[in-house]
Each structure stands twice: as structure tokens, then as C-alpha cells.
Write a structure and sequence with these properties.
Radius of gyration: 20 Å
Number of strands: 0
Helix content: over 70%
Largest sheet: none
Distance between the termini: 32 Å
Order of helices and strands: HHHHHHHHHHHH
Structural class: mainly alpha
Length: 276
């Protein structure tokens, strides 16, 4: 299949999978700025994957300029916008520190999820993390059942992965949820970390640790809306929303070159070429 045909197919799937516009009564200026912000954050993310520091910085400046719009900030929760600002600041510092893209790549992921969560009527990408967190919880419990310090260490590895997922989606959850559910989940993760650290030294309290696991599961269920999304994901039974999320990511990758050229011409973004 030719590249052009793949791009056309991907765009068709994107249109059928979701990507709903703002409601009809939303101001046109806010809708246009949100559309621009989405394109810029996708471009920033892709540039970070490529490790292109100069292009990433150019996109970051455009994101900061666009995100300052008062009309745009009327969408979503104020706490979410504070976290978006924190992520922008962290990305700027990471870009200033050096050429290792890991720092600003992590912030690009957070921004991508947070901006996606701003659009009402869409099944936001961050919600799909519920199933992944369910898998982490399942592995954490199975690791703990091995017993002893080895079991505590295995559970701690899965807990660390769960913690990183929650950190990645924190801004998106804060944009979409008025209640402090994500903070409660983070508090329970930190509590479980302390208990597992003690267990790794042979000071385990089995009842407390298993109660801590239950607390994480309950907080995650509150955050994602229902326990059903926390059931372990199975390869033979993917949810339609998960397919839509993967389709959106695929479309961003396949259509990047042509779409970037169109948006650059429209908004005057100049690509910074990597030195030979």
C-alpha cells in the first residue's frame, strides 16, 4: 500500500473514530485556538520523539503563546490549566538544560493528553490509561503474592510503572475533573511505596500493604468513572475507545509531514533544520 493511500486511510479512520468539534455555542475564537493548540502539541510531541531540540523549542514557544488566550482558558478546569503551565515550564527548563530529549519528551506526553482532554464530547485519550493501570495493579498483586523481600521488590516495580502513568495523565485529569481524584490516587500510591520499601527490608505488614493496594484500586476507579475500565485489558477484546485512541496516534504519525506543512503555512511556523 502506498504512503499516500495509507495517509488517506488513516485520516478517514480518524474522522470516523472521533475528534468532535466544540459545541455549537462555543466561541469561534476559542474553537480555532483549541484546534491550533492541538496541532502544536502533536507537533511538539513528534519533534520530541525525533529528539529535535531546536524544532521542539520552536513549537514550545508557539504553544505558550497560544495557551495564553483568555478565551481558550475558559475551557476546562482552572486546576488543569495550572498543571499545563507547570508542564510548559518544566519543558522549557528541560530544553535549556541540554540535548537529552527524555525530559521534554515526558512533558510533551503530558501536554498531548491534557490538550486532548480539553475538547468536550470526545472520549479523551487519558481515560484509556484506566485499563493499563488495571494491568499494573494485577501485576503488583501477583508480584506481592510471591512473598518475602523478593515479592515486595516485584510489587514495587509494578507500582513504579503505575506511578509514572498517573504522573503522565495528571494534567489531563485535572483539566477534565473538578474533584481532586488524581491527588487522592497519588497519595495512596505514595503510601503504598512507603509500605513496600519497609517490606523490602523485611519489615512487611501484610494487612496494611493489601489494604493499600485496595485503596489504590478504589481511587483509580473513582478517577476513571467505573471499575469496569480497570479490568485487565485483553488483546482479544479491545475496546472501541482504545482502537480510536490508537488510530489517532497512527494518524498523527502518518499524516505528520503533509499536515505540518499546511499548518506551518497557515500559522507561520518555520521548521528549524537539524545541522548536518
Amino acid at each position: 500500500m502506498s504512503v499516500r493511500l495509507k495517509i488517506l486511510l488513516a485520516l478517514m479512520l480518524l474522522l470516523t473514530a472521533g475528534g468532535l468539534p466544540l459545541s455549537a455555542d462555543a466561541p469561534a475564537a476559542a474553537e480555532d485556538r483549541l484546534d491550533r493548540l492541538e496541532v502544536l502539541t502533536h507537533s511538539f510531541y513528534l519533534a520530541s520523539l525525533d529528539g529535535n531540540r531546536q524544532l521542539s523549542y520552536a513549537y514550545l514557544l508557539k504553544i505558550e503563546e497560544t495557551a495564553a488566550s483568555a478565551e481558550l482558558r475558559a475551557i476546562g478546569e482552572p486546576a488543569g490549566w495550572r498543571r499545563i503551565d507547570d508542564s510548559l515550564g518544566a519543558a522549557r527548563k528541560a530544553l535549556a538544560r541540554g540535548r537529552n530529549p527524555d525530559g521534554w519528551r515526558a512533558e510533551a506526553s503530558r501536554l498531548l493528553l491534557a490538550v486532548d482532554a480539553l475538547t468536550p464530547g470526545r472520549e479523551s485519550l487519558w481515560l484509556e490509561y484506566g485499563r493499563l493501570i488495571g494491568d499494573d495493579l494485577d501485576r503488583m498483586r501477583r508480584g506481592w503474592q510471591r512473598g518475602g523481600t523478593e515479592g515486595a521488590a516485584a510489587a514495587a516495580v509494578s507500582l513504579q510503572l503505575l506511578k509514572e502513568r498517573v504522573e503522565r495523565l495528571e494534567a489531563a485529569a485535572a483539566v477534565a475533573r473538578p474533584q481532586p481524584s488524581v491527588q487522592l490516587l497519588q497519595e495512596r500510591i505514595r503510601y503504598a511505596e512507603r509500605l513496600l520499601a519497609a517490606a523490602a527490608k523485611g519489615e512487611a505488614n501484610r494487612v496494611w500493604i493489601e489494604e493499600a493496594f485496595d485503596g489504590i484500586e478504589q481511587a483509580a476507579a473513582d478517577l476513571f468513572g467505573s471499575k469496569e475500565v480497570l479490568s485487565p485489558a485483553r488483546a482479544d477484546d479491545p475496546s472501541p475507545a482504545w482502537i480510536a485512541a490508537m488510530t489517532a496516534i497512527l494518524c498523527a504519525a502518518l499524516g505528520y509531514a503533509g499536515y505540518r506543512k499546511y499548518r506551518h503555512d497557515r500559522w507561520g511556523i518555520s521548521s528549524v533544520k537539524r545541522p548536518l
